[in-house]
Amino acid sequence: MLIINCPWCGARPEIEFRYGGEAHVARPADPAAMSDQEWADFLYNRTNPKGLHAERWRHIHGCGRYFNAVRDTVSDFFVTTYKAGEPRPDIGESGQ
Amino acid sequence: MTNRFRTHSGGRIDRGAPVSFRFDGKTYSGFKGDTLASALIANGVHLVGRSFKYHRPRGFLSAGSDEPNALVNVARDAARMSPNLRATQVELYEGLKATSQNRWPSLGFDAGAANDFVSPFLPAGFYYKTFMWPAGAWKRFYEPKIRAMAGLGVAPTLPDPDRYTQNYAYCDVLVVGSGPAGLAAALAAAESGATVWLVDEQPELGGSLLAERTATIEGKPAQQWLSDTLATLAAKDNVTLLPRTTAFAYFPHNMIALAERVTEHLAAPGADLPRERLWQLRAREVVLATGALERPLVFPDNDRPGVLLADSARTYLNRYGAKPGDRAVIFTACDAGYRTALDLAAGGVAVVAVADLRREVHGELPARALAAGIDVRPATVVTGTTGRLRVSGARLAKIKGGPSVDPVGASETLACDTVLMSGGFTPSVHLFSQSRGKLVWDAASGAYLPGSSVERERSAGACRGITGLQRVLEDGYGQGEAAARASRDASSPARGATPPPGASSKSFPAQADDLGTDGFIGATPHARNPAFTKAFVDWQNDVTAKDITLATREGFRSIEHVKRYTTTGMATDQGKTSNMNTLGIVAEALGESVPKIGLTTFRPPFTPTTFGLFAGAARGDQFDPVRKTAIHDWAAEHGAAFEDVSLWKRAWYFPKALPDGRREDLHAAVARECKAVRSSVGMFDASTLGKIEVVGPDAAEFMNRMYTNAWAKLEPGRLRYGVMLREDGFVMDDGVVGRLSSDRFHVTTTTGGAPRVLAHMEDYLQTEWPELDVWLTSTTEQWAVIAVQGPKAREVLAPLIEGIDLAKEAFPHMSVREGTILGVPTRLFSVSFTGELGFEVNVPAHYGRAVWEAIFAAGQPFGITPYGTETMHVLRAEKGYIIVGQETDGTQVPDDVNLGWAVGKAKKDFVGKRSLARASMSAPDRKQLVGLRTTDPKVVLEEGAQIVADPKAPVPVPMLGFVTSSYYSAVLGHSIALAVIKGGRARIGTRLSVPMPDRVIEVEIVEPVFYDPKGERLNG
Fold first, then answer.
1. Rounded to a whole number, what is the distance in angstroms from the first to the last CA of chain A?
2. Which of A1, A30, A85 lies nearest to residue B770, judging by beta carbons?
3. CATH topology of domain B530-597
4. What's the topology of domain B1-156?
5. Do A84 and B495 touch (CB under 8 A)?
6. What is this model's ipTM?
């Protein structure tokens, strides 16, 4: 079971959290202005990288906050976590 | 029988504490400290089981958790009956009752042994090749027969009466394995002040030291050093010692699962103790000191009772004072055979000969064996054994040099009653591999060793290929020091580095035999007819060398495929004694090197683990949380039948007692309840509806974005039916929403959808629109909700309400007012999910039952009828009201279920709006919600049934849609159904078919509102 470092509460076991999909996929300001293809990209297409992945987690059985994490999808280890709204830390693309 | 094979002295058994036990109905005696295996061996009993497939007689192979043969059933009573326990791990207690398995009628004569004589017809993959015809016979005939013949123990049929507990724990350094490396590691970590857990699967800590006879450490006999070290560790507050505890699984981020057997070894377990404890231990650093497992040699007839691993025989002799026999032949590929030979000779067992697979034999241990007068035969193999239920002789032959048809010379049979074998030692890398560490092949020692780590762990001692007692101790100490250091460094990365060489700050002068790394992997040569010889690789699954070479001839190359085809390594021992030899045989057959063959995956658990341990307290009432409303107990007292809706218990229907003493069935109760609501008044516990209070200056804007409806113009005091979409445009939830003031909404959700809806709202509020000043609070548990429905609803409620004018004009349909009911504050909704005049009384949950009872009493003059969820379903279906999750399955846009009217077309944006604009979302052939009437009004369709135009059309028949809801309407006198059908609205008035297994039901497509289509009754 993973240990996840909630930026508000600190390190807690994985069972307190719920995964929230890829991070930094902002809802478009004016959806009506988008083409079907652009809207489909926003809705469905995700990067699914092998290596570092910025993703959302929610401390659902804790503070209830959404936050972001960078996790290595190869090793399943977290590199860092940070509050929602903060930019993705500059730590490259690869986890190796 | 009296311990004829017991030594006169020595060992760790308590000779002052005799213990009486039964095996297969016969009484034996042993001593405290014995295992079932050692006590049986001391009594001369080796025949303890029958093999899985051929029912061959089997004895003990090992002395530990790697034992594949000696599986027994231990029963305290009919409920406390554990099958498939390894006799080598079962501790003896007074009165223990064990029985052998997989034999009929008895261990000595087993009818299933006929399989052994027809074994030429039972090759690898036999099942796959044979039981293929006729098609239906596998389930009806073959599988039941095979299951009866094969299989191991029998599961108890009574519930387990014992208690199992589950604990979480934390430590700085976990040391797995308490042999010399583990003890030294624990010592080093403990001296640094770290909190240390030392766990071992055996009843005593000490590992290999428990069987040491002559070794010394720091000038003391090894056993003295062991007890001194354990005393030192036990005296430290920062050390936890856990014997009888198996580290059976290694999970990410150093979470190790430990199975502690608390009472299994006790004759009379105390009622206050759990039978087992599951520890979920989080360790900052882990030291794996799991040792090495001795490999058997694969030679013909190597499975006869009396054929044991050499070092296991030494353990029985030195640790338990149990001699494996009177006359031993030893077959070895390493120096372990000589160490056993010397100890046996010293213990009074005649060593007939040592056959050494190696061409040249030198070194200290062989020299000492020769000096002791033991018949040492280099370049010699055992090519078979004699005997039936016990080995009576071993056939020895010289290995010929160079390539030849017959790899060995003429054989000579030596009489003996035990054959002891050693193919060398396999480092026990199970947990390391489970931690996802990378194994590397070490050609020098012929073993897979831990390479780079993923977790914060390090291996120490024999499990990473280190030999020699002093080197093992110093490696353990060095790894313990390194682990303690690393545990203090919170900033060190989660991922560990490759363990450094065991640079120990302390030296452990020790004198002991170094066995080196010699060994053999594969099948040893012989010149016998392969058709009539069985050289076992996997004892438990009855896999022979021949089976594995056959698999390679049939084209299997990958070791994972060979494993599954032959089942080698797939028994309950998970191939602890067989995997490496399998690799050797495959490598030789394919002409490849061992590392080229690959390695099968190590998976948890390390040894079989009980279901009780995993279940813990989660049984019966504790299995799952149960949510009950404030009115639940009243419903139960009034005979309600309940159904589960998510975690809630909901009253399903209220069956009345009939004059003959029976109770109404579901249909009678529902018919009565429906008629009562339509003709007078009924009451319903709607407390399980999800409730969310949406509050703040931007609450209306937030609601506008989250729901399809327009909220800005909804006046305080009014209700609106809200539809919530996912961003992909599909209906996610619905519910009635009340606006209490400009900045406060009382939102209701479906019963099962409440957490999902709140999470959805929080997601948008926190991450997309953090600028909105809105607060969301779950209030599901705070409100009890009593629906009062029917033409008399107002008359029932009016006398109880204060501060709210219930007159039609003052309190129209779809309104909310705050006031009191019997002095209890209420949010009163005028709302209906039945199509009748209706109210929903929201009161604080703790007043729920009192208010319910008061309404029930006030309603008596009108025959007020409590109704359950089934009646609620029928009444709403009569009105064509959907249930999200029943009429929808996550692929319906609002218009598909006739909710297009609820979509605020003028709104610029809301969640899901852009998706609704896609052309396919308004295609005319989308599945649309319609009603169905069966031609025969009595026929009630099955929910989920498919709807087609022409049931005689060629297969595959085009499916037009399916039934989503179906009931018999007692009020209307005919069945009703809702369905989603392609282009359904355009088909109203036409007929379609519902094909069932036994008939085809004709249906007419109708409007989905069956009752009061104009909605006149709502305003009562």
1. 22
2. A85
3. Arc Repressor Mutant, subunit A (1.10.10)
4. Ubiquitin-like (UB roll) (3.10.20)
5. no
6. 0.96
